[in-house]
Structures are given as C-alpha cells and as structure tokens.
Amino acid sequence: MNSLVGKQLQNGKYTLNEPLGQGGFGITFKATHHYLGQTVVIKTLNPANRDNPQFVALEERFQDEGRRLAMCVHPNIVKVADFFIEDAVPYLVMDYIPGQTLEAVVFPDRPLPERSPSTMPDKLERRCIQSIKPGCCIAMSNRKTLFCVKVLRKWC
To answer: Global pTM?
Structure first.
C-alpha cells in the first residue's frame, strides 16, 4: 500500500499522501488536489488483485461503485469529485471529510449514547448499521453527523 504514497496522478493534478484504509477490494488514500489546493480522498483497486482472474470484473464493480456514489445526493454521503483511469488503473476521487471512523468512535468500549444515531435520516441509519463496516463511516467531531463513504449496491 505504501508503494503508492507520493505517486502523482493526472499530470501532477493529484498526489497520494498517506493511506487511510485498505480492504480486499480497494485502497483509499488521503491526497492533495494541487490545482485547487484541497485535500481529497482517492480510492483505487488493491494492486494485489491484478493477478486475480476476475480482475476485469473487479474493475467493472469499482467503476459501478463510483457511478452509484456519484448518483447519491445526500448531506451525509460523501461526494464524488472525479473519476479517471491512468495506466490502466481506475481512481475514484472523493471529498475529504475530517474526523474519526465510526469504528474508532464506537469500539471497543465506547458505545454511542442511545440518541446519537437518531440525527441521521432513518433510511440511511438502517443501511449504515446493516450494510456498511464501521470503518467506512466518518463521525464528525460533534459526533452528531455521520458521513457514509461506502456505496450501497441496492440503495442508490
């Protein structure tokens, strides 16, 4: 994962600064958008999947995830800023939301007060709790706002 740190993309438009997370499917980086002077998040496929015989299907799934996330317009869902393919590798650029993951806020021995999730829209709350890993949700410092950064295949 760290081999991509420092990599420049789109002719210097973006630089991958530090890894934020990694799963079997993808890797997410905190990055810089140099033209706008903004911090962004860039997700790409896990390079370990390159040898997977199903790699083409994984690429299609990754692009589909980007399209679905871009269609989701909600104040508690991270926005897609860009999508591109460079050197045959797809990249999804999203807004950077500072804060801790829900996993860091709630686990291991820090349950949220009973009413905290009620600030989320009911449908989003149920879907986040049932379908998304806590590491894919960002809790803002006020702990009343939750951003989901993972796309739900059947929701959007």
So the answer is: 0.72
Which of 24-37 are b and which e, b meaning 16 or more Cβ less than 10 Å from the residue's Cβ? eebbbbbbbbeeee
User: Is 18 within 8 Å of 5 (Cβ atoms)?
Assistant: yes
How do the pLDDT tens digits run along the chain, 156 residues long? 468 899 999 999 999 999 988 877 789 999 999 999 999 999 998 888 888 888 888 889 889 888 888 887 777 778 899 999 999 889 999 999 887 776 676 665 655 555 444 444 444 444 443 345 555 555 555 555 555 555 444 443
Judge whether 5 and 11 are in contact, CB under 8 Å. Answer: no
What is the sign, positive or negative, of the torsion defined by CA atoms of 23, 101, 73, 113? positive
Q: How far is residue 72 from each of residues 69, 79, 127, 131, 151, measured CA to CA in Å?
A: 5, 8, 14, 16, 9
